[in-house]
Amino acid sequence: MAILGDKEYFKGIETIKYEGKESDNPLAFKYYNPDQVVAGKTMREHFKFAIAYWHTFCGQGSDPFGPGTQNFAWDQSSDPIQAAKDKADAAFEFISKMGFDYFCFHDYDLVQEGATFAESEKRLVAITEYIKQKKANSGIKLLWGTANCFSNPRYMNGAATNPDFNVVARAGGQIKLALDATIALDGENYVFWGGREGYMSLLNTDMGRELDHIGQFLSMARDYARAQGFKGNFFIEPKPMEPMKHQYDFDAATAIGFLHKYGLEKDFKMNIEVNHATLAQHTFQHEMQVAANAGMLGSLDANRGDYQNGWDTDQFPNNIQETTEAMLVFLKAGGLQGGGINFDAKIRRNSTDMEDVFYAHIGGADTFARALLIADKIISSSPYEALREKRYSSFDTGKGKDFEAGKLNLKDLYEIAQDNGELTLQSGKQELFENIISQYI
Questions:
Q1: Domain locations along the chain
Q2: Which of this chain's residues are annotated to bind Mg(2+) 2 (predicted)?
Q3: pLDDT digit string (tens) for 92-143?
Q4: Are 333 and 264 in contact, with CB atoms under 8 Å apart?
Q5: How confident is the model at residue 158 (pLDDT cuts 50, 70, 90)?
Q6: pTM of the entire structure?
Q7: Could you give the CA distance from residue 19 to residue 399 in angstroms, rounded to a whole number?
Q8: 301 is in an annotated binding site
Q9: Exactly one of 86, 107, 109, 366 is catalytic; which is it?
Q10: Known active-site residue 46
C-alpha cells in the first residue's frame, strides 16, 4: 500500500488486514474478509464500504457545550485550498489503509466555502481536480456526492422549500456545482438529504406550496444531471426531525409517497440511516423493508443512536442483534440497488488519538460482516424461512390463493366467514423467531 501524499498522517498504522475472530490485534478485521463469498457475492461486493468525509476528516468533536477536542494535522494551513489538499491526502491515506474502496462527501467537506458564490465555485473546481488525481493514483471511488444546503444561515428556513425564491435559486446553484463535482469524479450516485426541508411551525408555513417547490426542484436537478450524462441513482435520505421540528422526508414511506406524487420514482431510491430510522420511531430493518418493498433499497448509512437520547448521535454500529435483523432484509431483497454502506458515524468527543478512528471503522465493518454471515446461515440452515412461509400457507391454496389472485369479492369473503364459523387462534411464534436469531448469533 502506497501512501498517497507527501506526508503520512496516520503513522505507525499499516493496511488493515483480515485475521479472523481469534485475533487479538485491535488493528485487524475479525469478521470482515473482503474476498469471502457469502450468498453469491464477496463481502466487498455486498457492502461497498464508504468513508464519510464529513465525520471522519471534518468533525472535530465539538458539541453544543464545548469546542472540538480533536486537533487534526491536516487542518493546520490557513490557505483554504492547501488545507483542502492536506485533508484529501489524509483521507486517501486513511481509506487506503482501511482497504475500503469508496468515499462520500458534501461539497463543503472537500473545501471551505468561500465568501462569495463565485469564490466557492472556484475552490470546488480546484479541489475536484486534485481529488481526480488522488482517485487515479489509488483506485478509490466515489460512492456518492451531495450538497450541504443546511449549515449556512441562509438556509435557516430551508433550501428548496425556502419561502424566499432567491434562497431557492442559491440552493439550485450550489447543487449544480455539487452535481458537477460528483460527475467529474465519476460518482456512482447522488444523495439529497433535506436537512432543513421542513417546518418549525405551521402558522407561518404553506406546506402544499413548499412540497410542490421541492418536487419541482428535484425534477430540475435530475434533468440537469441526466443532460450531463449522469447514469447513477439519486437517493433521498429520510429523517423525521432535528434540526427542523418536522421534515418533509420524515421516513421511507413518506419519501416514497412523495416521489410517486411528483413522478420521480424511476430515478430516485432510498438511502436509509439507522439513527434516522430510530428517531422516526421505527427500526433500521423496518425502514429497509419499506424501501425494499417499493424496489427502492438503494444505499445505507451505517451508525446507531444512543437510545436514551432523542437526537442524532451518529455512533459507530455495534448492535449485532439489530444489524443481523437488517441483514436478513438485505439478503432477502437481493442487496442494494446501486449504493453501498457509508459509515455516517463519528468517534466520540473523548476519543482523541489517530488510531481511534481505525478502531471505530474496524468495529463497524466487523459488525456488518458478522451480521451478514449470521443472516445467511439463518436463511440457509435454520427453520426461519419455513416458519415464515407456514404463517402464510393459507394463501397458498384454495380460497386464500383465489383472494391473492383477485378472484374473490367482498360477498365471497362474507360467505366464507359464515361457513367457517368461529376460528382457532394461530400463534405468531414471535419468541421462537427471536430465539432462532439469538441461537445463530
A1: 17-381, 384-440
A2: 273, 276, 312, 314
A3: 999 999 999 999 999 999 999 999 999 999 999 999 999 999 999 999 999 9
A4: no
A5: very high
A6: 0.96
A7: 55
A8: yes
A9: 109
A10: no
